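Chapter summary example.
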Amino acid sequence: MRTSEGIVRIVVIGLALGLAPARPLDGTPSDGPAGIDRVIGPAAPVSLEHMPPAVAAPSRSAPATPVPSRLDVPRPAASVPSIGPERTAVPRPVETPGSGTQALPAGEKDFRSGTEALRAGEKDKAVTSLQYAAEQGHALAQWKLGRMYAEGDGVERSDLRAFEYFRRIADAHADDSPSARHARVVATAFVALGHYYRDGIPNSPVKADPARALEMFSYAASYFGDRDAQYHLARLYLDGKGVARDARQAARWLSRAANKGQHHAQAQLGWMLFNGEHLLRQRARGLMWLTLARDSATANEAWIVEFYDSAFEQASDDERATALVYLEQWIKGRRD
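The structure predicted for these 336 residues follows.
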């Protein structure tokens, strides 16, 4: 069996087992950057500013501080200004619960009705029910509507309306526990806002603001430990957008995201390690990350496949074999 076939087989077996994130090769927690420290040296500071109030202009400079733990990250006071469409209350018939009925959280009944309508393909009915739930503060309904407007799924596409729904989630739930049932929804709302601030929304009050995008990604990456936020935060450090270019900080955030299975981070970290870009060259370890990334790449992510193919062709037989050993250890660490 060729070395490449062995690597792919191990990856496929690992993914088929449904392995959950656990530890990187050095045994450190997957949320920590300790493993990468051996490659890039002692920790460098990361700038994480307090979220500015809605009426204040965001500060673009702040004293650098160490990478914060979840408990160190301040709750943003009014994280994102309301600049989307004005809320329009959706009239809802008043229902009197019968005796013995169990009270549901606000908006839960409408949310369930909306999701059932979506499964049945009744988009108009679904949107109406989800709007009822969203106006009652139901975070999942707000998130679902945000996605629908962002993608034009059952509604006319409107990034501004999507922005407004994600903003409501961020404002209302920024200080919720990272272990809360809907914490993932809150984190992805911050990530969505980060994208909107990074690129801006054409013909709207939401202008491109890399510093504001940094704040959104930083909060989701640090407080909620969101792997996608960690990857996009690393990209800002690599590109120097909204923050001074800092490849060391980028490598740390890439390491955190990669160890959680974020395949874009795995590809970027693997390429940097294989080629010695900003990091001490480790070709076998870089090939390991690129192999994992390639296995998760979608059809429109040809850049990941190109990275892998280029590295595999350049790697020696010894480097390929060592990458296979690293891959086996990584999968075993996730299983344990």
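To summarize the output: The mean pLDDT is 77.
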